[in-house]
Amino acid sequence: MSPKSGSNSTLTELSSQLATAVEVAANSVVAIHARRRIPSSGIVWRDGVIVSASHTVRRDDEIPVTLPNGDSTVATLAGRDSATDLIALRIQGGGGGGGGGAKSHTAPKADPSSLRVGSLVLAVGRPGKNVSASFGIVSAVGDGWRTWQGARIDRVLRLDLSVYDGFSGGPLVDASGAVVGLNNSALARGTPMALPANAVDRILDELLERGHVRRPFIGVAVQPVALSASLVKQHGLRNDGGLLILSIAESSPAEKAGILLGDVLLEADGQTLSRPDDLLDALSGVANNAAVSLKVLRGGTIKTVSVTPADRGEEE
Predict the structure, then answer these.
(1) Measured distance CA(94)–CA(108) in Å, rounded
(2) 192, 178 contact by CB (below 8 A)
(3) What are the two backbone dihedrals, phi and then psi, of residue 176, each rounded to the nearest 5 degrees?
(4) Of 64, 227, 289, 312, which sits with the fewest C-beta atoms within 10 Å of its C-beta?
(5) Model-wide pTM > 0.90
(6) Alpha-carbon span 30 to 42, nearest angstrom
(7) What backbone phi and psi angles, to 5 degrees, belong to 8?
């Protein structure tokens, strides 16, 4: 066999493997008819449960869905999380006479931690009756990232492929067709990204339990500020920075607790605060209906203020 024929054989095998991967993934990809123009894509993630990108599903009840076998059914809203742009829908069975309910379409999944920069992946969508696919690579793997709406994602996958119109909410799959993430073109304002499968599972658990993801907040806008060396020494502070309160939402937990404009937040439950992310991280660890203890610098003196955060997710 000549080198050229061997190369052709390798490419043919790769092409066949990728086509098979799309066929495997297509068995769990649905079309969701909940916006104008073309449908969006969704994944049968668990028995009777579909996940998709929240921004593509613009109604909350009687949501028409076309299953992979062509049957039609109606989904109901189980929950949304706008901060991670994830929506969960519930369906009953598989619709008309074709049989093969939702359980038979549940997506096979793979561990996304095996993905590296340069890993070959496929984005699969069903922006209509038939399935479509896009081929590319993982261009970056982030260890930790906060969405523009404040949700922290432990790991995020940036993609070098096309997420065509109607693909958001569909699966990112590996060469075997197993789902490693959920594609989204809006999560990072236009950059193709995928929410890893384990993050989808974690968010989905909360959506199915309470209909939203709990996100504690106290209702303040803050800005990092540096503290003078003399102030740090005078009060024996552990950090030379804090968070200056710029605004306080009306009737917010912070206002009710007596936080004032111009206060500088130094610590939250003993955790030093240097960046706005530090405050968000500290609040995320506060139990439901529990209070957080804030160390505050006010007019040159140190005060401790107890604040019970509200649940932003409940207000969405």
Answers:
(1) 18
(2) no
(3) -95, -10
(4) 289
(5) no
(6) 5
(7) -60, -40
